[in-house]
Amino acid sequence: MRIVLLGAPGSGKGTQGEMLTAHYGIPRLSTGDALRAAVREGTPLGRKAQAVMEAGQLVDDAIVVGIVEARLDESDASDGFILDGFPRNIGQARTLDHLLDSKQRAPIDLALHLDVPVHEVVARLVKRGIEEGRCDDNEDTIRQRLGVYMAETHPLLDYYAGQGKLVTVPGSGTVTAIFGALTRAIDAHCAPVASA
Ligand code: AP5
Protein backbone atom coordinates (compact mmCIF):
# COMPACT_ATOMS: atom_id res chain seq x y z
CA MET A 1 0.00 0.00 0.00
CA ARG A 2 1.63 3.23 -1.19
CA ILE A 3 -0.17 6.31 0.04
CA VAL A 4 0.32 10.05 -0.39
CA LEU A 5 -1.26 12.34 2.22
CA LEU A 6 -2.29 15.72 0.84
CA GLY A 7 -3.70 18.73 2.65
CA ALA A 8 -3.00 22.28 3.72
CA PRO A 9 -0.56 23.04 6.51
CA GLY A 10 -2.32 22.07 9.76
CA SER A 11 -4.87 19.81 8.06
CA GLY A 12 -3.76 16.85 10.22
CA LYS A 13 -1.42 14.96 7.89
CA GLY A 14 1.12 14.30 10.64
CA THR A 15 -1.48 13.39 13.27
CA GLN A 16 -3.32 10.98 10.98
CA GLY A 17 -0.13 9.72 9.30
CA GLU A 18 1.25 8.50 12.63
CA MET A 19 -2.03 6.69 13.42
CA LEU A 20 -2.13 5.09 9.96
CA THR A 21 1.46 3.90 10.34
CA ALA A 22 0.60 2.19 13.63
CA HIS A 23 -2.60 0.71 12.19
CA TYR A 24 -1.19 -0.68 8.92
CA GLY A 25 2.40 -1.33 10.03
CA ILE A 26 3.96 0.59 7.16
CA PRO A 27 6.45 3.44 7.59
CA ARG A 28 5.55 7.12 7.31
CA LEU A 29 7.96 9.53 5.74
CA SER A 30 7.39 13.18 6.58
CA THR A 31 9.72 15.47 4.65
CA GLY A 32 8.87 18.25 7.14
CA ASP A 33 9.98 16.08 10.09
CA ALA A 34 13.15 15.04 8.23
CA LEU A 35 14.00 18.67 7.45
CA ARG A 36 13.28 19.81 11.02
CA ALA A 37 15.57 17.04 12.32
CA ALA A 38 18.33 18.27 9.99
CA VAL A 39 17.80 21.84 11.26
CA ARG A 40 18.00 20.67 14.92
CA GLU A 41 21.18 18.69 14.22
CA GLY A 42 22.73 21.65 12.39
CA THR A 43 23.73 19.58 9.36
CA PRO A 44 24.72 21.43 6.15
CA LEU A 45 21.34 20.45 4.69
CA GLY A 46 19.58 21.73 7.82
CA ARG A 47 21.44 25.05 7.68
CA LYS A 48 20.41 25.44 4.05
CA ALA A 49 16.76 24.55 4.74
CA GLN A 50 16.20 26.57 7.92
CA ALA A 51 15.76 30.05 6.46
CA VAL A 52 13.55 28.70 3.67
CA MET A 53 11.28 26.90 6.15
CA GLU A 54 11.08 29.92 8.47
CA ALA A 55 9.99 32.00 5.47
CA GLY A 56 7.23 29.48 4.71
CA GLN A 57 8.69 28.64 1.30
CA LEU A 58 9.46 25.26 -0.26
CA VAL A 59 12.92 23.77 0.11
CA ASP A 60 14.72 22.85 -3.15
CA ASP A 61 13.15 19.91 -4.97
CA ALA A 62 16.55 18.20 -5.28
CA ILE A 63 17.02 18.20 -1.49
CA VAL A 64 13.62 16.72 -0.66
CA VAL A 65 13.76 14.21 -3.52
CA GLY A 66 17.11 13.02 -2.14
CA ILE A 67 15.57 12.56 1.33
CA VAL A 68 12.60 10.63 -0.08
CA GLU A 69 14.65 8.42 -2.38
CA ALA A 70 17.01 7.40 0.43
CA ARG A 71 14.07 6.55 2.70
CA LEU A 72 12.17 4.59 0.07
CA ASP A 73 15.30 2.48 -0.53
CA GLU A 74 15.23 1.26 3.09
CA SER A 75 13.97 -2.30 3.46
CA ASP A 76 10.95 -1.50 5.66
CA ALA A 77 9.48 0.63 2.85
CA SER A 78 9.58 -2.16 0.29
CA ASP A 79 5.97 -3.29 0.92
CA GLY A 80 4.44 0.12 1.34
CA PHE A 81 4.73 3.59 2.83
CA ILE A 82 2.84 6.73 3.71
CA LEU A 83 4.26 9.98 2.33
CA ASP A 84 3.38 13.08 4.38
CA GLY A 85 4.38 16.42 2.89
CA PHE A 86 5.75 14.97 -0.33
CA PRO A 87 5.07 15.52 -3.15
CA ARG A 88 4.50 19.23 -2.70
CA ASN A 89 4.35 20.37 -6.32
CA ILE A 90 3.73 18.86 -9.75
CA GLY A 91 7.46 18.47 -10.43
CA GLN A 92 7.92 16.41 -7.25
CA ALA A 93 4.88 14.28 -8.11
CA ARG A 94 6.24 13.50 -11.57
CA THR A 95 9.67 12.75 -10.10
CA LEU A 96 8.09 10.37 -7.58
CA ASP A 97 6.23 8.52 -10.33
CA HIS A 98 9.44 8.23 -12.40
CA LEU A 99 11.47 7.19 -9.37
CA LEU A 100 9.12 4.31 -8.51
CA ASP A 101 8.97 3.27 -12.14
CA SER A 102 12.76 3.38 -12.62
CA LYS A 103 13.26 1.21 -9.53
CA GLN A 104 10.58 -1.20 -10.83
CA ARG A 105 8.50 -0.42 -7.77
CA ALA A 106 4.69 -0.41 -7.82
CA PRO A 107 3.14 3.03 -8.32
CA ILE A 108 1.26 5.15 -5.77
CA ASP A 109 -2.10 3.51 -4.96
CA LEU A 110 -3.95 6.35 -3.34
CA ALA A 111 -3.73 10.09 -2.68
CA LEU A 112 -5.74 11.02 0.41
CA HIS A 113 -6.70 14.67 0.68
CA LEU A 114 -7.59 16.02 4.13
CA ASP A 115 -9.98 18.88 3.44
CA VAL A 116 -10.10 21.51 6.23
CA PRO A 117 -11.37 25.12 5.97
CA VAL A 118 -8.65 27.78 5.97
CA HIS A 119 -9.88 29.49 9.17
CA GLU A 120 -9.63 26.17 10.99
CA VAL A 121 -6.07 25.33 9.89
CA VAL A 122 -4.93 28.86 10.82
CA ALA A 123 -6.48 28.49 14.30
CA ARG A 124 -4.83 25.07 14.79
CA LEU A 125 -1.39 26.29 13.75
CA VAL A 126 -1.53 29.52 15.77
CA LYS A 127 -2.48 27.39 18.81
CA ARG A 128 0.40 24.97 18.15
CA GLY A 129 2.80 27.91 17.71
CA ILE A 130 1.84 29.22 21.15
CA GLU A 131 1.90 25.80 22.86
CA GLU A 132 4.91 24.19 21.16
CA GLY A 133 6.89 27.13 19.75
CA ARG A 134 7.46 25.58 16.29
CA CYS A 135 9.44 28.23 14.41
CA ASP A 136 7.19 28.23 11.29
CA ASP A 137 3.91 28.52 13.23
CA ASN A 138 3.75 32.30 13.61
CA GLU A 139 0.83 33.96 11.86
CA ASP A 140 2.87 35.60 9.04
CA THR A 141 4.61 32.34 8.14
CA ILE A 142 1.34 30.40 8.36
CA ARG A 143 -0.26 32.77 5.80
CA GLN A 144 2.81 32.39 3.58
CA ARG A 145 2.67 28.56 3.83
CA LEU A 146 -1.03 28.61 2.93
CA GLY A 147 -0.29 30.78 -0.11
CA VAL A 148 2.43 28.39 -1.24
CA TYR A 149 0.07 25.46 -0.64
CA MET A 150 -2.63 26.98 -2.87
CA ALA A 151 -0.17 27.88 -5.65
CA GLU A 152 2.08 24.82 -5.64
CA THR A 153 0.44 21.88 -3.84
CA HIS A 154 -3.29 22.28 -4.44
CA PRO A 155 -2.84 21.51 -8.19
CA LEU A 156 -1.79 18.00 -7.11
CA LEU A 157 -5.46 17.28 -6.41
CA ASP A 158 -6.11 17.46 -10.16
CA TYR A 159 -2.90 15.51 -10.88
CA TYR A 160 -4.00 12.55 -8.74
CA ALA A 161 -7.67 12.87 -9.74
CA GLY A 162 -6.47 12.51 -13.33
CA GLN A 163 -4.81 9.24 -12.36
CA GLY A 164 -8.04 8.08 -10.65
CA LYS A 165 -6.25 7.96 -7.28
CA LEU A 166 -7.67 10.92 -5.35
CA VAL A 167 -10.00 10.51 -2.37
CA THR A 168 -11.00 13.62 -0.40
CA VAL A 169 -11.90 13.14 3.25
CA PRO A 170 -13.32 15.96 5.44
CA GLY A 171 -10.55 16.77 7.91
CA SER A 172 -12.69 18.63 10.48
CA GLY A 173 -14.11 16.85 13.51
CA THR A 174 -12.56 14.49 16.00
CA VAL A 175 -9.22 12.84 15.26
CA THR A 176 -10.89 9.44 15.75
CA ALA A 177 -13.73 10.14 13.30
CA ILE A 178 -11.29 11.39 10.65
CA PHE A 179 -9.08 8.32 11.17
CA GLY A 180 -12.15 6.11 10.65
CA ALA A 181 -12.94 7.86 7.35
CA LEU A 182 -9.33 7.49 6.18
CA THR A 183 -9.10 3.78 7.00
CA ARG A 184 -12.42 3.14 5.23
CA ALA A 185 -11.07 4.88 2.13
CA ILE A 186 -7.80 2.93 2.27
CA ASP A 187 -9.48 -0.42 2.85
CA ALA A 188 -11.82 0.23 -0.08
CA HIS A 189 -9.00 1.17 -2.48
CA CYS A 190 -6.00 -0.91 -1.50
CA ALA A 191 -6.13 -4.66 -1.83
CA PRO A 192 -5.20 -6.47 1.41
CA VAL A 193 -1.80 -8.16 1.49
CA ALA A 194 -2.28 -11.88 0.79
CA SER A 195 -1.51 -14.06 3.81
CA ALA A 196 1.20 -16.70 3.46
P1 AP5 B 1 5.54 20.14 6.96
O1 AP5 B 1 6.01 19.71 8.28
O2 AP5 B 1 5.14 19.12 5.95
O3 AP5 B 1 4.41 21.21 7.25
P2 AP5 B 1 2.89 21.34 6.81
O4 AP5 B 1 2.40 20.70 5.59
O5 AP5 B 1 2.73 22.82 6.87
O6 AP5 B 1 2.23 20.48 7.85
P3 AP5 B 1 2.08 20.62 9.40
O7 AP5 B 1 3.02 19.71 10.08
O8 AP5 B 1 2.12 22.06 9.86
O9 AP5 B 1 0.59 20.21 9.50
P4 AP5 B 1 -0.09 18.77 9.30
O10 AP5 B 1 -1.02 18.78 8.14
O11 AP5 B 1 0.93 17.67 9.39
O12 AP5 B 1 -1.01 18.77 10.58
P5 AP5 B 1 -0.71 18.20 12.05
O13 AP5 B 1 -1.13 16.80 12.16
O14 AP5 B 1 0.70 18.57 12.44
O15 AP5 B 1 6.63 21.08 6.22
C1 AP5 B 1 7.23 22.16 6.90
C2 AP5 B 1 8.12 22.93 5.93
O16 AP5 B 1 9.15 22.04 5.42
C3 AP5 B 1 7.44 23.44 4.65
O17 AP5 B 1 6.82 24.70 4.87
C4 AP5 B 1 8.61 23.52 3.67
O18 AP5 B 1 9.41 24.65 3.92
C5 AP5 B 1 9.42 22.29 4.04
N1 AP5 B 1 9.01 21.10 3.25
C6 AP5 B 1 8.42 19.95 3.72
N2 AP5 B 1 8.20 19.09 2.72
C7 AP5 B 1 8.64 19.69 1.58
C8 AP5 B 1 8.67 19.31 0.22
N3 AP5 B 1 8.16 18.12 -0.17
N4 AP5 B 1 9.18 20.17 -0.68
C9 AP5 B 1 9.70 21.35 -0.29
N5 AP5 B 1 9.70 21.78 1.00
C10 AP5 B 1 9.19 20.97 1.92
O19 AP5 B 1 -1.76 19.09 12.87
C11 AP5 B 1 -1.59 20.46 13.02
C12 AP5 B 1 -2.14 20.87 14.41
O20 AP5 B 1 -3.55 20.63 14.43
C13 AP5 B 1 -1.53 20.05 15.56
O21 AP5 B 1 -1.37 20.89 16.67
C14 AP5 B 1 -2.60 18.98 15.83
O22 AP5 B 1 -2.59 18.54 17.16
C15 AP5 B 1 -3.88 19.72 15.47
N6 AP5 B 1 -4.93 18.82 14.93
C16 AP5 B 1 -4.75 17.75 14.09
N7 AP5 B 1 -5.94 17.18 13.81
C17 AP5 B 1 -6.89 17.92 14.46
C18 AP5 B 1 -8.30 17.83 14.55
N8 AP5 B 1 -9.00 16.88 13.90
N9 AP5 B 1 -8.95 18.76 15.29
C19 AP5 B 1 -8.25 19.73 15.96
N10 AP5 B 1 -6.91 19.87 15.93
C20 AP5 B 1 -6.23 18.97 15.19
Write the SSE topology:
Blueprint: E1 2-7, H1 13-24, E2 28-30, H2 31-41, H3 44-54, H4 61-72, E3 81-84, H5 90-102, E4 110-115, H6 118-132, H7 139-153, H8 156-162, E5 166-170, H9 175-189
Parallel strand pairs: 1-3, 1-4, 2-3, 4-5
Helix pairs in contact: 1-9, 2-3, 6-7
Bound molecules: BIS(adenosine)-5'-pentaphosphate (AP5).
Main location: cytoplasm
EC number: 2.7.4.3
Catalytic activity: AMP + ATP = 2 ADP
Can you describe this structure?
- There is one protein chain.
- This protein has nine helices and five strands.
- The protein has a five-stranded parallel beta sheet with strand order 2-3-1-4-5, with helices on both faces.
- The chain has one domain (2-187): 3-Layer(aba) Sandwich (Rossmann fold), CATH 3.40.50.
- The protein is an alpha/beta fold and 196 residues long.
- The longest helix has 15 residues, at 118-132.
- The site of BIS(adenosine)-5'-pentaphosphate has 28 residues, from helix 1, helix 2, helix 3, helix 6 and helix 9.
Summarize this entry quickly.
With 196 residues, this protein is of the alpha/beta class.
CATH architecture: 3-Layer(aba) Sandwich
Radius of gyration: 16 Å
CATH class: Alpha Beta
What strand line-up does the widest sheet have?
2-3-1-4-5
Bound small molecules, deduplicated: BIS(adenosine)-5'-pentaphosphate
Described by its quaternary structure, the protein is single chain
Topology, number of strands: 5
User: How much beta, percentage-wise?
Assistant: 5-15%
Structural domains: how many: 1
Sheet bearing the most strands, described?
5 strands, parallel
- Proportion of residues in helical segments: 55-70%
The CATH topology:
Rossmann fold
